[in-house]
Write a structure and sequence with these properties.
With about 150 residues, this protein is an alpha/beta fold. The protein is built from five helices and five strands, in the order αββααβαββα. Strand 1 and strand 2 form a beta hairpin.
Amino acid sequence: MFDDEHWMSHALELARHAEQKGEVPVGAVIVRDGLLMGEGWNQPISSHDPTAHAEIQALRAASQHLENYRLPGSTLYVTLEPCIMCAGAIVHARIEKVIFACKEPKTGAAGSCFDIFNSPQLNHHVHCEHGVLAEQSSDLLRGFFRSRR
């Protein structure tokens, strides 16, 4: 069985792929029972789609793979704290757990700015952890934005 660092390393590979395509380097994978169900990387610029975040791409891939829009028992690994849009989609998909690498202090919806996953108004709550390979993810993002300035 693979561990959290293994799956976050895979998400970081996808983030590097996004960076090579000129996208903000964020990658995501969805795992259930130790198996990869879906993966994605940021694609809003190249696809002209504001919803094409890494998490949404991974959710779409996992849903197609499982032929179900609900993904109970799944864990989503993502290199950056999800935004409000992605957090909402994660809740709707009934993801059990989210593990993200680094916090997003400006738009993070898993505790930094908002805490969508533990909102008492929602009927599904998502267990959330962060910090797995945070330094590598932060370095990748800092390098990307530094090169764009």
